[in-house]
From TrEMBL, chain A:
<feature type="transmembrane region" description="Helical">
    <location>
        <begin position="116"/>
        <end position="135"/>
    </location>
</feature>
<keyword id="KW-1133">Transmembrane helix</keyword>
<feature type="signal peptide">
    <location>
        <begin position="1"/>
        <end position="26"/>
    </location>
</feature>
<protein>
    <recommendedName>
        <fullName>Carboxypeptidase regulatory-like domain-containing protein</fullName>
    </recommendedName>
</protein>
<keyword id="KW-0812">Transmembrane</keyword>
<keyword id="KW-0732">Signal</keyword>
<keyword id="KW-0472">Membrane</keyword>
Automatic annotation (TrEMBL), chain B:
<feature type="transmembrane region" description="Helical">
    <location>
        <begin position="88"/>
        <end position="121"/>
    </location>
</feature>
<dbReference type="InterPro" id="IPR037272">
    <property type="entry name" value="SNS_sf"/>
</dbReference>
<feature type="transmembrane region" description="Helical">
    <location>
        <begin position="311"/>
        <end position="333"/>
    </location>
</feature>
<feature type="transmembrane region" description="Helical">
    <location>
        <begin position="486"/>
        <end position="505"/>
    </location>
</feature>
<keyword id="KW-1133">Transmembrane helix</keyword>
<protein>
    <submittedName>
        <fullName>Sodium-dependent transporter</fullName>
    </submittedName>
</protein>
<dbReference type="Pfam" id="PF00209">
    <property type="entry name" value="SNF"/>
</dbReference>
<dbReference type="GO" id="GO:0016020">
    <property type="term" value="C:membrane"/>
</dbReference>
<keyword id="KW-0812">Transmembrane</keyword>
Length: 153, 514
């Protein structure tokens, strides 16, 4: 008996619902929502009363929460609570400010790559070719054999 | 009189079932959590290398064993290496037993989140009872409110009933289910990728996953993580692949089957990584490097911020949890089948009885991990007793049990049964012949790699036994349990080894059973 399940029809219908743009955010505020790697960006640190947090140490943690996280001391904020930060690595970053009252403020952000990373592109393409090339080749080899299995005797 | 074993209806059915078994919750969330934990791109290259050095060769071993002996894992191991082999076979299944108990608990929670995705999950907060706070922002609030109620017990019962239905007629019902589940999983994941990479700067997440960082790759922990991930993601050391391959006809090509199943599994992880990393990057979300956190908090938080309003959030939330449920079911049925077929083989009981008994026993096991008592009101750690138990048992059964089984099966097959003999059997029906290098891979290289991963892990336990830092945050009533991770370690070890010994020593396999 043939199944009436049509995977490709369902895929097409679901893909039609999968397109549209994005959102907004809030203590440590970079001038750009997505700073670019190796390009300086101004960061403003404010207190909970929304006043500029002057002389506050700002740290950037690259790959936060991972086993291979690394931290960079960005420096102290100026009287306007501002500091210029140059990201040294693309990816997820947590900015952390040690406030004068002993509290800590954090802000996660994503630093975009300054250009397409050639090695990343290469690994993506090669992995894709190996994995999906192998799957396609494997299935086509299966299809060359009779559809039904021989009896188990 | 010997009853004939079932058989897969088609080769595609077998591949879908084997890949469905391998593709589970781990592929969708654990891979991404692990990849992030070990530096994204720094992880992916070691992971690909591990696939070819350890993953595919052990998959060939497990398929080859099931295919040559045409029995479930313990009996296959018995035929290959006598009583010690059978003991390893049962120990693999006892581990799988623990894993399937809490795996189905997690699936029960997924079902609860799926129901929540119809609306409640996307509200700002959920009131809490028994915790230090009166309410908590969602999805955390919804999740812990659910965990501290008895509702998950009902969800767990439903998931066990679904498993019983899917394995009631063995490979026939499993094959029918995976022919729908597996294509659906791929479709849902493709939709999530399209949504992820079309978010503002979502595609940058792709570079985060694939761009190698050679400085970070010098860290041995990255390689350890990659080799462990490959072992877990391919469902090796569970005995499932051997059980599935035992239902194949004698002329099946095990090298191609292993290659196809492994590549499909890792191909699914490839696209799951694209989807999850694009969401992480677009919403600057930092994963807590844990599967459950990624599954129940990080991705749902990303979905809740998706543009397009409430309908879009609800649609993608439902899609994500339905995907998890399907992937989880296609894996859990394989674990249940692996256990049921072993009981049938050894104790000659009917399939209905084996499945029925195991599902009832399994529900009781899963109920342990569903216990809703709040033991950590401040939520510095796991919150409820069930979740704490799950965390501790998972650490031992999953992180150590599977690897120890993998190590022992390679040594027993390699040295006692003979890697050459296994290879000759595999080559007899394969288009691609394995060379003598395969023997050394099974006999020496893979055991050495697994041993290295185990030693690194055990060394870490001496620095502080897993879970020993939980104590101060927990209520007194259960502190004896959660303050004593040694209790869980000893409990897991005694129960699995004890049950394996009983199953090994009781009853006998009939001679020449086919």
């Amino acid at each position: 008996m043939r199944s009436s399940f049509r995977p490709m029809t369902l895929l097409a219908a679901l893909l039609l619902t999968a397109l549209a743009p994005t959102y907004a955010w809030a203590g440590i505020e970079p001038a750009k929502k997505f700073p670019r790697n190796q390009e300086p960006v101004n960061v403003t640190v404010t207190t909970t009363e929304d006043a500029p947090a002057a002389g506050v140490d700002l740290y950037a943690t690259y790959r936060p929460g991972s086993n291979v996280a690394s931290e960079q001391l960005v420096g102290k904020t100026d009287p306007q609570g501002r500091i210029s930060w140059m990201p040294v690595e693309a990816g997820l970053v947590t900015l952390r400010a040690e406030m004068p009252d002993g509290s800590t403020q954090t802000q996660n952000l994503s630093v975009i790559y300054s250009e397409v990373p050639i090695m990343g592109l290469l690994v993506m393409v090669i992995a894709g070719i190996i994995l999906y090339g192998g799957v396609i080749r494997g299935f086509s080899a299966l299809n060359k054999l009779p559809a039904d299995l021989p009896p188990d005797t | 009189m010997s009853k004939s074993r079932g058989q897969w209806g088609s080769k595609v059915g077998f591949i879908l079932a084997a890949s469905g078994s391998a593709i589970g919750l781990g592929n969708i969330v654990f891979f991404s959590a692990n990849a992030y934990k070990f530096g994204g791109g720094a992880f992916y290259l070691p992971y690909l290398i591990a696939l070819f050095v350890i993953g595919i060769p052990v998959m060939i071993l497990e398929f080859g064993l099931g295919h040559q002996t045409r029995r479930a894992f313990p009996e296959s191991m018995h035929k290959a290496a006598g009583k010690p082999g059978e003991f390893v076979g049962w120990w693999a299944l006892m581990n799988a037993c623990f894993i399937v108990f809490y795996y189905i608990t997690i699936l029960g929670w997924v079902l609860g989140m799926l129901i929540g995705a119809f609306g409640q999950l996307w509200q700002e907060t959920t009131p809490l009872k028994g915790f230090a706070m009166d309410e908590l922002a969602n999805p955390h609030g919804y999740f812990f409110s659910m965990l501290s109620s008895w509702k998950p017990m009902i969800f767990v019962a439903i998931v066990w009933i679904l498993n019983a239905i899917l394995v009631r007629r063995g490979v026939a019902t499993i094959e029918a289910a995976v022919k729908v589940f597996v294509p659906l999983m791929w479709i849902f994941m493709i939709v999530l990728i399209v949504r992820g990479i079309t978010l503002e700067n979502g595609f940058q997440g792709v570079w985060l996953l694939f761009t190698p960082n050679f400085e970070v790759m010098k860290d041995a922990a990255v390689w350890q993580g990659a080799f462990s991930q490959i072992f877990f993601t391919l469902s090796l050391g569970f005995g499932v692949m051997t059980a599935y391959a035992s239902y194949l006809p004698k002329d099946s090509d095990q090298t191609s089957n292993a290659l196809l199943t492994s590549l499909m599994n890792c191909g699914f992880e490839y696209i799951a990584g694209l989807a999850i990393f694009s969401i992480l990057f677009a919403f600057a979300m930092v994963p807590a490097a844990s599967t459950l956190s990624m599954m129940f908090f990080i991705v749902p938080t990303g979905i809740s911020q998706m543009p397009g309003g409430d309908p879009m959030v609800m649609a993608f939330g439902l899609l994500f949890f339905l995907l998890l449920l399907l992937a989880g079911l296609s894996s859990s049925v394989s674990l249940v089948e692996g256990l049921a077929s072993s009981l049938i083989d050894k104790f000659r009981i009917s399939r209905a009885k084996a499945v029925g008994l195991f599902c009832i026993f399994g529900f009781v096991g899963s109920a342990m991990f569903t216990l809703p008592q709040v033991v950590n009101p401040g939520l510095e750690n796991d919150g409820t007793l069930g979740l704490t138990l799950l965390d501790l048992v998972d650490h031992w059964a999953f992180s150590y049990g599977l690897l120890i089984v993998g190590l022992l099966e390679c040594l027993l097959i390699g040295w006692a049964f003979g890697a050459k003999r296994l290879r000759a059997g595999v080559n007899s029906s394969s288009r691609f012949n394995l060379g003598s290098w395969y023997d050394w891979l099974i006999k020496l290289i893979i055991p050495a790699l697994i041993l290295y991963v185990l030693i690194v892990g055990i060394k870490g336990e001496f620095a502080g036994l897993y879970g020993s830092d939980y104590g101060p945050n927990y209520k007194d009533g259960f502190s004896w349990m959660v303050n004593s991770p040694q209790f869980i370690l000893v409990g897991w070890f005694v129960l699995t080894v004890g049950a394996s010994l009983i199953f090994t020593l009781r009853g006998k396999y009939s001679e020449g059973s086919q």
